[in-house]
Amino acid sequence: MRSGIFIIALALALIAPSVSANTLTIPGHNDFGETQPMPRRGLSMDSVLVDFGEPDQRLGPVGEPAISEWVYGSFRVYFENQTVLHSIDMNTLIMPK
Question: Where are the alpha helices (DSSP H) in 1-97?
């Protein structure tokens, strides 16, 4: 019985140092912990205005289908016609060098 406990304890002692977590770092990426709330895909322009207010700047529409961009401080919202396609947090965006 004691030899069984000894073997288990020895196995755990040998395995424990090999179990560890690694941190992945991406050059150019700033991790600010919590992400800010941004409009999710599929919302209408009217819903974005109600939830986030008037944007700092409106760009577009350009092309077919019409693509528009709204700038809100540190994030941007892209629309196809009247519907949110993407929201991008400019603080965590990785820019090419």
Answer: 2-15, 45-52
Burial of 74: CB neighbours in 10 Å, binned 0-12, 13-18, 19+: middle
Asked whether the beta carbons of 71 and 55 are under 8 A apart, the reply is yes
List Cβ neighbours of 43 (8 Å cut-off, separation of 6 or more). 51, 83, 84
Nearest to 57 by CA among 73, 46, 34, 39: 73
- 24 is written with which tokens? 């992945």
pTM of the model: 0.64
Tokens 């919302």 identify what position?
43
pLDDT surpasses 80 at 51: yes
Structure token pair of residue 53: 């207010």
